[in-house]
Amino acid sequence: MNHPVAEAAKDDSTYAAEEEARGLAPHRVGEVVMEVRNITLRFGGVTAIRDISFDIREGEIRAIIGPNGAGKSSMLNVINGFYHPQEGEIWFRGARRRGMRPHQIARQGIARTFQNIALFKGMTTLDNIMTGRLTKMKRGLVWQALWAGPAEAEEIRHREAVEKIIDFLEIQHIRKTPVGRLPYGLQKRVELGRALAAEPKLLLLDEPMAGMNVEEKEDMCRFILDVNDEFGTTIVLIEHDMGVVMDIADRVVVLDYGAKIADGTPDEVRTNQNVIDAYLGVPHE
Amino acid sequence: MGDLLFFFEVLISGLLAGVMYALVALGFVLIFKASGIFNFSQGVLALFAALTLVGFQTGQIPFAHLINAVWGTNMHHWSDIGGGHGQEGHGGLPDIAAIAATLLVMIGLAWLIVKVVLRNLVNQEGIILFMATIGLAFVLEGAGDLMWGANVKVLDVGLPSGPSDTIIDATGMFIEKIEISAAVVAVILVVALTLFSQYTKMGRALRAVADDHQAALSVGISLETIWWIVWSVAGIVALVAGIMWGAKSGVQFSLSLIALKALPVLMLGGFTSIPGAIVGGLIIGVGEKLFEFYIGPMIGGATENWFAYMLAMAFLLFRPQGLFGEKIIERV
């Protein structure tokens, strides 16, 4: 079995040249961070994902699109370990991942948001984002339970990092508000903040703009681009809004009925006949 | 003057009885706060802890009846083996060692509960977890019986018993020493628990797990570790409750029924509040006693059996989250 990172490094220059020819910014996109190989996921008799492979490169915004029920969220759940595929391999930062639990995967540096917002509703914005720092805290939970002293200084450092994120997402005014009381758009923003707090190497966003109005969508788009630009975070994004995807994604994977039907830059995907048929619809006239 | 003295005597004995209720309610609150599980087995946990403690103290061999039935032996205590007699006569452990050993058993039990029951139920509805704890209550009760026998046992860990002479001399009130010790222990326990959840950074992780399993996992919290810690602490609280109740009225299987008295306490105080459990316990204890002594005779007595539940029902009508419970926020 070839090592995926080695494989990627070999054709990096060709890749960069191709990217440049397409008018993208190759300097930002580095080697393969994650490679998903021949993943098949079944729930009883239903095959949610069938033999899907793709890679995710450092620093890119990688979109996964497809009609409802195409297997997008399942794919994300496989990547962050909620689902365990029956077949296939996942390589993350040069190592094959086997039978890991979601909290271990989170500690490896994969953070995520959820389609239906999974915040800690009774906690304040600040506390929610602080929980995102847990993976960064050196003293383990048991240690903290036994002796608070050394954990105290750590808390202060983490608090500073969290305040930066709060500034970045422009949510200072709701710092102390229990998130259950916040409007939907702001909750989505807090959830992004919690994921960012982990300083993830890979950030998974499940429909970050679903149910938002135009203004909120524009804000969220800006935040996602800024995260990618300023922190160089690699982002995998599921989104329904085609306009958004075409604007911000570097590369797009298209799924339909659990299978991959296209993979490439937004322009390539847009002109792909399979995609037009499956997702964008056949033009009338 | 005599009336006033009687009133205070009733009041104080009510407060002290309330402390005993609060001790049990505390265990419920801890698990509910930290994992969103209403743990029906908390009462049985207290019983199991008390049984185990007595077992260690008296040097009983666990599963003695089972072993005797299978192998036809006749041994009940460690001293029966090899004929050697320990210092206590039965080969039992000294009080402190027995308590420490019971603590370890409770922590091990918590680990077992997480591994066998809870980890298979991640992300399930609260009602399913609740049903699982009912099953757990039966299993634990059966295991307690099988391990240590069903007879009523005397639990003595050196706590003072009988009425306090100093208080009788000073005020003329009749107050049990054991209840005063219970109050002191409860205060220590509450302070310790508050320190634990406020001044250690566990608090946030605990609340996170209670709030949303998936989200907690996605930020790197290990549910199993958290659950283990929480159930261990609940086991320790159960041990304390088991010691106090056991010392007061003997270790018997009806001990597990005190869990039912904890329910109205929780409805009053709120399922999510440690101070609520204490205040709720006190209100129930005092209310019960005052009602019994002043109103009871007018309506035929025996009001202690139902007063707490009536009070709880009234609370459910007007303040469903209890006195100190978290307000339920629902966005429509």
Q: Your description of this structure?
A:
Chain B: Belongs to the binding-protein-dependent transport system permease family. LivHM subfamily. Chain B: It holds the Pfam family BPD_transp_2. Chain B: Its main location: membrane. Chain B: The chain crosses the membrane at residues 6-32, 44-67, 96-114, 126-150, 180-197, 226-245, 265-286, 293-318. Chain B: It is found in: Cell membrane. With 285 residues, chain A is α/β, with parallel strands linked by helices. Chain A has two domains: 1-109 and 200-285, P-loop containing nucleotide triphosphate hydrolases (Rossmann fold); 119-198, no CATH class. Chain A has twelve helices and ten strands. The longest helix of chain A has 20 residues, at 149-168. The model of chain A is unreliable at 1-10 (pLDDT under 50). In chain B, helix 4 (95-116) packs across helix 10 and helix 11 (258-269) packs parallel to helix 13 (307-318). Chain B contains 13 helices and no strands. The interface between A and B is medium-sized, with 39 and 27 residues.
In percent, how helical is the residue content of chain B? 55-70%
Strand percentage of chain B lies at: under 5%
CATH fold descriptor of the largest domain in chain A: Rossmann fold
* First-last Cα distance of chain B: 58 Å
Low-confidence stretches of chain A: 1-10
**Main β-sheet of chain A, in a few words?**
6 strands, mixed
Give the class-level CATH name of the largest domain in chain A.
Answer: Alpha Beta
Tell me which oligomeric state these chains represent: heterodimer
Structural class of chain A: alpha/beta
Regions with little confidence, pLDDT below 50 for 5+ residues of chain B: none
| Number of beta strands of chain A | 10
Strand order of the largest sheet of chain A: 6-7-8-3-9-10
Rounded mean pLDDT of chain A is 83
Strand segment tally of chain B? 0
